[in-house]
Amino acid sequence: MSILSVVIPAYNEGAMLHKTANVVSTILEENNIDYEIVFVNDGSKDRTLEILKELAKEDDRVVYLSFSKNFGKEAAMYAGFCNA
User: What's the whole-model pTM score?
Assistant: First the structure.
């Protein structure tokens, strides 16, 4: 079985994470695509990590990685691809 892995870097995106996860999930479900959403917290200083933990607890198709500090979008994408 293959699934689509959607990798999303996040730096101080706490306010948009629920909406992002919902929109991506809705589009993929409407098209009958098996998927996972891999969020990468890139050292956020807001509630991003806390919210990602909530999302992952609510939906097993949502996974997350978390950096201890900001390494940049490219590093976050690479980490997400390596863990997809």
Answer: 0.95
pLDDT in tens, the chain (84 residues): 799 999 999 999 999 999 999 999 999 999 999 999 999 999 999 999 999 999 999 999 999 999 999 999 999 999 999 999
Pick from 3, 41, 36: which is nearest to 21 by CA? 36
Q: In what order do the strands lie in the sheet with 62-67?
A: 4-10, 35-42, 62-67
Dist. CA 77–CA 41, nearest whole Å: 10
Two structure tokens written together for 37: 């959403």
- Using the 8-state DSSP alphabet, how is residue 65 labeled? E
- Sheet strands (E) in 1-84: 4-10, 35-42, 62-67
Q: Are 58 and 21 a contacting pair, CB within 8 Å?
A: no
